[in-house]
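ugh ok so i messed up the first submission bc i forgot one of the chains. this is the corrected input, ALL of the components this time, i swear. 227 residues overall. if the numbers dont match what u have on ur side tell me asap before i send this to the collaborators (the ones from the other lab, u know who)
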Amino acid sequence: DTEVTQTPKHLVMGMTNKKSLKCEQHMGHRAMYWYKQKAKKPPELMFVYSYEKLSINESVPSRFSPECPNSSLLNLHLHALQPEDSALYLCASSYPGGSSYNEQFFGPGTRLTVL
Amino acid sequence: ELKVEQNPLFLSMQEGKNYTIYCNYSTTSDRLYWYRQDPGKSLESLFVLLSNGAVKQEGRLMASLDTKARLSTLHITAAVHDLSATYFCAVYTGEYGNKLVFGAGTILRVKS
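and heres the new structure output, hopefully the right one now
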């Protein structure tokens, strides 16, 4: 299995809703990432988990809460989002730092719209 | 802080022509990645460049890395319409957790 899967593909939520994004990989990677991408912009790193521990949090607002229940799964819990949080949310995975390759493989993304 | 600059940001090409996209970065790094993104889609890995002088080729695309000049190039040979996409370079920062910094992206449009 050489892919990263993400669910749901599309999500529309109100500002008072709570929802979660899910990401899964079965490539044996031990680093997993959440990125946010706005239209015509590069991906912006949000969080990095390495060996199931949060290693980077790029000063993301607390309305985004990541979780890594095991080495294959990464969640992003959403609560009280703002319309400006509407974006494509991408998950990626790789071998962790120290590996000579470190290539990040991206999932298909979740298109999030906040009303 | 590592900064990555790509140019041009937009490139309109005729089919059959050659062109080069440039990726400059501000601090030392020994790993550089090129990705392709089609509209509304995710990022597809194109090349991983791991050392000075590395050159990789796939079809009409060729990528190279000069770590001393802090420069990578993505050369397009005899462009075809199917190459229309946004191309990003990304540079490894060396930080724990394998953080990449992305360039702004080059939107490539190949006209027939």
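quick check: The mean pLDDT of chain B is 93. that seems consistent at least. The two ends of chain B are 41 Å apart (CA to CA).
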